[in-house]
Amino acid sequence: MEIEPRSHQKPEPVLVEIEPGFTIPDFMLAEVQIKLAYADEHIRSASVQPELIRLQVEAEASQPELIEKVQRIVESLAKGAIRPKTQILEDYMDRPVPYKADPMPELIRLAEISQESPGVFALGPLVTRLAGYFESQFLALADSFQAAPYRFPTLIPARYLERVNYFRSFPHSLTFATHLRSDLDVIDRFSQEAACAGGELTASPDSFAAVQNLLSPAVCYHLYFALADKPLPQGQVIATAVGHCFRYEAINLTSLERLWDFTMREVIFVGSKDFVLENRETARQRMREAFERIGLAYRVENANDPFFIGEFRKQAAFQSAFQLKFEIRVSLPFNQSTLAVGSYNYHQDFFGRSLNITLPDGSPAHTGCVAFGLERIAFAFLAQFGLDPSGWPAEVRQAAA
Ligand code: ATP
Ligand code: ZN
What is the C-alpha separation between 146 and 140, in angstroms, rounded? Predict the structure, then answer.
């Protein structure tokens, strides 16, 4: 994991090696690596092996404190962790694909993407058309369910997220929206003094109003809040919406694979347990056909949401035991890894109970969603088929080239 140094200060890093005192199981290595991103602001890069953690750390860091935080993360996630049962629902990883290289350098060279700041990218015509092709496939899926279209705001009230326990589950990835306090002196001072240094706005922190809204981390939450505190119309709803979503992924924001600001299309099911589970399954079968038509190499397997360390173990085990989340993991030939481009989710009656959405018999509604990351699927497609449309499957070439 390479971490971009904070641009306004670049002291020479020092190597810090930590032996966790127990063996980190192989199935937890990636999770530990991702969560170390949030251990301490002075960490520039980390590499995690079962017996050893190597960190590049800014020299001014207080090492005892940093080591203590790293140990806390590692122990909480990995000590005595039980291997989750892998469940693979579809496996098409061995489909032959023509491209082997990392598309990022070529995308940058051709100005098809340009980075505005870590995790924030402008996309050029090629990637935009490709994202549009996949969006048309997801819209066809939504149409096959006659899903009702919705448009949701990019902001989401803090009190909404509080009501669904978001602050406890995913505090690390939140993005806050604020504005200047409505005070003439504050606004005058800001207009005189505001400047940027090293990419950061320098302004007095007391200029900013308290946070009422955040940037939304998911699309489907907005639907659940629109349905809250009342009986569900006709006892079931199928809806679809696309929206910008925001998840701060710290040092991991290095390519199109992990963005701070990305776009998600969701198809959302609200109703009885059977209604949600059957539709989630139908959606998976329909997407299987769509991916087969273009010869995408991928698999669908059980997964968990990226809970923060305090909640991780309990929640991840729960999601796994009840088959709540399946991810579409697309092969990235250039580094023999996979990337999640979408997920099939079932939340049981969590939102129905938390938000008081009721079925005709008075019981809480169940919810589920299928969610696709548009930038990620375009990126994964380019990683398998390259940037030259002549090497693309005919259907994609005709729609997007
Ligand atoms: P749930 O509703 O159960 O919380 P969700 O619908 O919010 O889940 P996720 O499964 O967390 O959605 O994410 C859906 C998809 O969004 C992922 O499969 C991925 O393609 C995309 N995505 C998630 N995080 C990022 C990110 N940081 N950068 C780019 N794409 C992302
Ligand atoms: Zn969702």
Answer: 9
| Owner of token pair 């273009």 | 294
Question: Domain-by-domain residue ranges, the chain?
Answer: 14-78, 88-154+218-400, 176-207
Q: Give ion ligand 2 contacts, CB < 5 A.
A: 220, 369, 371
pTM of the model: 0.93
- Determine whether the shortest distance from the Cβ of 329 to ligand 1 is under 6 A: no
CATH 3.30.160.270 fits 88-154+218-400, yes or no: no
Q: What pLDDT band is residue 4 in, cutting at 50, 70 and 90? A: very low
- pLDDT score recorded for residue 198: 86
Dump pLDDT digits (tens) for 265-311.
999 999 999 999 999 999 999 999 999 999 999 999 999 988 898 88
Please give the distance, rounded to the nearest whole angstrom, from the Cα atom of residue 262 to the centre of ligand 1.
Answer: 9
Average pLDDT value for residue range 27-43: 93
Q: Please say whether the structural domain 14-78 has been given the CATH code 3.30.70.60.
A: yes
Within a 10 A sphere around the Cβ of 124, how many other Cβ atoms?
14
Q: Using a 6 Å cutoff on CB, does residue 78 contact ligand 1?
A: no
Q: Do domains 14-78 and 88-154+218-400 have the same CATH topology?
A: no
